[in-house]
Design a protein that fits this description.
Blueprint: E1 7-13, E2 18-23, E3 32-37, E4 44-48, E5 52-58, E6 84-90, E7 95-100, E8 109-114, E9 121-127, E10 131-137, E11 144-146, E12 155-157
Antiparallel strand pairs: 1-2, 1-5, 2-3, 3-4, 5-9, 6-7, 6-10, 7-8, 8-9, 11-12
């Protein structure tokens, strides 16, 4: 029998609720998972993945309220990070920068590793339906997001080629 992997998570729901706890069964392909709440180590709640904005896999539950925000972020700061670079804009106007090894607009969600490795988040699972825009790019060939403001699911398209290439 394989040992269970204990993940510290902070679950942000689409309705604004936040739950801190541990999960042993999170799977982005499943419709639900369980969280054992930190406040009461015996209370286990069932979480429906479609109801979450994002699941933050964290280093500590205390966090860091003084971490630099997106306005202080420099694209140059993670130019050499592996993976596809992302700028994610959520329905509540929160913006997150990071990289991923597996983004597809057809999936229900995706993982992002924060660009700023000094913050409390190791990785974040983003529910695609909680986003209003996802911009992707590579340094050698930029990609742009086409944003459909009334659509809960943004679509990614290649920009037209220009004569300047």
């Amino acid at each position: 029998m394989m040992p269970k992997i204990e993940n510290k998570v902070v679950v942000h729901f689409r309705d604004g609720r936040i739950v801190k706890g541990y999960t042993y069964d999170f799977n982005p392909n499943k419709e639900m998972f369980h969280v054992t709440k930190v406040q009461n180590g015996k209370e286990i709640i069932e979480v429906t993945t479609s109801q979450v904005k994002a699941v933050f896999f964290v280093k500590t539950f205390e966090g860091n309220k003084n971490h630099p925000g997106p306005a202080e972020f420099s694209m140059e700061s993670f130019k050499n990070s592996p993976g596809l670079k992302l700028k994610v804009t959520f329905f509540d106007d929160e913006v997150m920068y990071g990289s991923t090894h597996g983004y597809s607009p057809q999936r229900k969600g995706f993982f992002i590793s924060p660009a700023n490795r000094e913050i409390n988040n190791d990785r974040v699972f983003v529910n695609r339906d909680s986003t209003v825009a996802v911009e992707t790019w590579r340094w050698e060939k930029p990609y742009k997001a086409t944003t459909y403001p009334r659509s809960p699911r943004p679509h990614i398209t290649d920009p037209p080629t220009s004569s300047l290439d």
